[in-house]
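Marked as duplicate of an earlier ticket. Keeping the data here for the record.
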Amino acid sequence: MLRRAIKAMAPLMLLAWAQPASAAPRVVVTIKPLHGLVAEVMAGVGSPRMLVKGAASPHVYALKPSDIGELNAADIFFRASSATEPFSSKIAESLPPHVEVVTLQEAPGVVLLERRAGAGFEPHADGRRHGHGSAKTTAFDGHIWLDPDNAKAMVDRIEHALSAKDPANAGIFQANAAALRHKLDA
């Protein structure tokens, strides 16, 4: 009896195994700090590709032919901003329409903080964080990910972008983002 049941189920099992698994979104990220955030949200689903590696500077980075291929095949391209990564402006303008460009500086909740001359990153004397809510400000600190509140806002935006592109894995992205926000709070 068991043998007959297995024999009858064999074609269905082969059909199920033959179905392609949901492919992870193809993601390209500009720099290492953003790559770390995106990689943590994508954990268990896929890995983002990082453009600027090693000692290369995002201020003067030149694309390689392999970078161009990766970017054109991507589903999502994450960058901080055109001010922090000037090379990314032309990329964002020239990508095929299917590639979503996510500029994390524009994530809801990100506060652009004034550039500091000293070593301290403490709040001003009145205890408040002074920043600018507009990317039109030219004297802001482009290292937006260093502020934990900004990093959490960026994680939210990363999670939403990934979930929209890959709804089948949205639960994983949400759980990973929640865990990362908890780490940032700690």
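See parent ticket for discussion. Confidence is low (pLDDT under 50) at residues 1-20, 130-138.
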